[in-house]
């Protein structure tokens, strides 16, 4: 693969309300931070500490976006649409670090 070749255009995001877009963005930010905190994958306490400190504000953003949706009467999350948006935004890779890695053979 030629590193100087132009990257293909990513598929367009599905139509989301502003609150739905904020939920997706905040959810991925929280997942990124939890992945950095994950003691089964983190190597340094300082980086995990900084991620834990940032987690509070990102979790608040997620809560606020969901609260806004709820107040507007949006009682359901459209999982198919939101899942599609998460996949386009590389959510599978970004949430992978949250999991515990398989145990290495002794």
Overview of the molecule:
With about 110 residues, the protein is mostly helical. It contains 4 helices and no strands. It has helices at about 20-35, 45-70, 80-90, 90-95. Helix 1 (about 20-35) runs antiparallel to helix 2. It is globular and about 50 Å long. The protein starts with 17 loop residues before the first helix and ends in a 10-residue tail after the last helix. About 10% of the residues are buried. The model has no long low-confidence stretch (mean pLDDT about 90).
SS field, number of helical segments: 4
Low-confidence stretches: none
Please identify the structural class as seen in this structure. Answer: mainly alpha
Order of helices and strands: HHHH
Helix content: 55-70%
What is the percentage of strand-forming residues? under 5%
Task: Please summarize the sheet with the most strands.
Answer: none
What kind of assembly state do the chains in view correspond to?
A: single chain
What gap, in angstroms, lies between the N and C termini? 37 Å
Relevant terms:
106 residues; mainly alpha; globular
Write the layout of secondary structure elements.
Blueprint: H1 18-37, H2 45-71, H3 79-88, H4 91-96
Helix pairs in contact: 1-2
Short description:
The chain has helices spanning 18-37, 45-71, 79-88, 91-96. With 106 residues, it is mainly α.
């Amino acid at each position: 693969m030629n590193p100087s070749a132009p990257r293909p255009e990513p598929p367009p995001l599905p139509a989301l309300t502003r609150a739905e877009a904020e939920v997706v963005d905040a959810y991925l930010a929280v997942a990124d931070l939890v992945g950095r905190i994950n003691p089964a994958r983190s190597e340094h306490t300082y980086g995990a500490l900084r991620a834990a400190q940032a987690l509070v504000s990102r979790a608040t953003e997620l809560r606020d976006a969901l609260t806004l949706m709820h107040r507007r009467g949006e009682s359901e999350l459209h999982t198919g649409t939101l899942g599609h948006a998460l996949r386009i935004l590389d959510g599978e890779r970004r949430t992978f670090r949250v999991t515990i890695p398989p145990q290495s053979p002794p």
